Every structure is written in C-alpha cells, then in structure tokens.
Amino acid sequence: MKCLLLIDLQSGFCPGGNLAVPEGDDVIPVANRLMAKGGYDMIVASQDWHPADHGSFASSHPGRSPFEMGELKGKPQMLWPDHCVEHTDDAALHPALDVTRIDYIQKKGMDREVDSYSAFRDNDRTAHTGLADYLRQRGVTQIDIGGLATDYCVQASAIDAVEMLPGVRVRFIEDLSRGIAPETIAAAEEAMAAAGVTTVTEAEILREARQG
C-alpha cells in the first residue's frame, strides 16, 4: 500500500502568498504528474489551518517582527507573518493542484498555543493529528513525501513518519520539494537521511510505476 503525502501545497507558501517559499509553485506540476502516474494507492495532503490569532504569528506578540525568534509556551519559536489563516485564500490548496485525486486532507496547526510543522503531530510532540493512525489502519507500507518547505514541514513530517510508523518505508521526493535557503535545505536532507529516509526523484518514481 503506497501513499503519496503532499505537504502544505497551499497558496500561502507559493509566490504571492503570505509566507512564500522561493519557486514553491514549481512543485505543483510535479505533484499532479505523480498523482496521475506514480502508481500510488492513496494520496494524502496536509494543510496548515491556523486561527487568526495563532501564537506563532509575529502579530500576536506586540512589538515583534516576522522572522525574529520569540517564545511560545516557554519554548523558542520563530515568529512568522500571518499565514494560512483558516477559511482564507492564503490557506487554500494551490488552485493548479489537482485536488480531485486527493483521498484525504489532514489539517494541522489549529491549536493557537503551539506550532505544527509536521503533518503527524504538533511541535511539542504531545498532540497528534491522527494521520499516523489513519495510515496505519489502511495498511500503508510506503510513504513518499514532498512539498513545502523542505527545511520545515517536509523534514518534520518525514522524520515523524519514520518514528511513528515503524516498519513503513519513508522516502523524500527531492524535486517535489522546495525550501527556504540552501544551507537549511542541506541540513534538512542530512537529518532525514540520518533518520532513515531515502531520497528519490519524480523520474525514479515514474519509472518504478511503469515497471509495475
């Protein structure tokens, strides 16, 4: 049972969005091709879905600016621009993404008191989204992960997939992902590899699908 997990392919993380990842929209055609021809049994997407007063927003901390380090629940927290606020266009899945092929959408980041990079659990590692149980109950044996951004939500989701779904093969799709900066992208890829995540490309996946 092979699952494609698309991380946060939302307007807010693409050019023109409130927290745009450079070239973030370049991954949308890759996602569409993989959904159509990648041979997956299940396709899941995660979606940042923040309340308007989320504690990770700089606007929730008077006198603070986006991209400063702040604090949330006593722990260090990057303060972000307001982004992916629930029920806004910024939070919507990218309009060019073929959402008709998506079987399940996992919303995250809904608790204003804690940020949630991973599709599987909040950053304090205590509250789970339920995605691991959803995939386990359906007998998923392989998860291929890509999306936005490599050095934040993709990395966290891939490592959590390894930790929370023992025995499941987890792969990072390099060209289905974009990140913030070269040095943090490289660090994220090293961290994923150290956790047991292997790296693949769209071409490799499509070749596997053709070979059956």
TrEMBL record:
<dbReference type="GO" id="GO:0008936">
    <property type="term" value="F:nicotinamidase activity"/>
</dbReference>
<protein>
    <recommendedName>
        <fullName>Nicotinamidase</fullName>
        <ecNumber>3.5.1.19</ecNumber>
    </recommendedName>
</protein>
<keyword id="KW-0378">Hydrolase</keyword>
<dbReference type="InterPro" id="IPR052347">
    <property type="entry name" value="Isochorismatase_Nicotinamidase"/>
</dbReference>
<comment type="similarity">
    <text>Belongs to the isochorismatase family.</text>
</comment>
<keyword id="KW-0662">Pyridine nucleotide biosynthesis</keyword>
<comment type="pathway">
    <text>Cofactor biosynthesis; nicotinate biosynthesis; nicotinate from nicotinamide: step 1/1.</text>
</comment>
<dbReference type="InterPro" id="IPR000868">
    <property type="entry name" value="Isochorismatase-like_dom"/>
</dbReference>
<dbReference type="InterPro" id="IPR036380">
    <property type="entry name" value="Isochorismatase-like_sf"/>
</dbReference>
<feature type="domain" description="Isochorismatase-like">
    <location>
        <begin position="3"/>
        <end position="202"/>
    </location>
</feature>
<keyword id="KW-0479">Metal-binding</keyword>
<dbReference type="GO" id="GO:0046872">
    <property type="term" value="F:metal ion binding"/>
</dbReference>
<dbReference type="GO" id="GO:0019363">
    <property type="term" value="P:pyridine nucleotide biosynthetic process"/>
</dbReference>
<dbReference type="Pfam" id="PF00857">
    <property type="entry name" value="Isochorismatase"/>
</dbReference>
